[in-house]
Amino acid sequence: MMTRKTKIKICGIKDPDAMMAALESGADFVGLNFHPESPRYVDIEVAAYLASYVPKSVSIAGLFVDPDDRRLDEILTSVRLDIIQLHGRETPERVTSIKTIAGYPVMKALPVGQRDDLAQIELFAPVCDWLLLDAPGMGGGGKTFDWALLEGLKSPKPWMLAGGLTPENVAEAIQKLKPDAVDVSSGVESSRGVKDAGKIHAFIKAVKDQR
Length: 211
What we know:
It is built from seven helices and ten strands. The chain is of the alpha/beta class. The longest helix is centred in the last third of the chain and has 12 residues, at 197-208.
């Protein structure tokens, strides 16, 4: 058994049933997706309603893709968020700007398809509070990547592992890589964009069993 507590994030929540499943099972983070092209997109009114369920002990991440300042302000004034999650082509300079303007911690998603991609960590770690290491492509695609690329990783900032995690493989991922947190979306869905409460419970249990 591991004594280190790996945090758990359930991303792409769109409805109260999924939110309650995540909260009741013990998620540390829940994610609301504000990218209109995603099947997990939630509008501001729904997001605000879902956020009202979340106790202060659980962090709410807002997922954005290359947001402009107006879009950020529109959402941040209406929805409780605790961390901004960036999944676009934001530069370190833009990440710094967003963090300054919003006044929130920032997590930057970095696609990892080959060892050279790890060079991004040095660029973004100084301006981020968390790093999210994910499979190439838009998040929530359900694809894993070569975990061997991350074995022995010494990140200067806390990092989350994402990309194709499921209740069946998350224990192996934790044992091999020892991430600070794991992030799941499609791996706990019954169909694209539709969360499954049973899979959420199973995923969180699988992580907790490693603690």
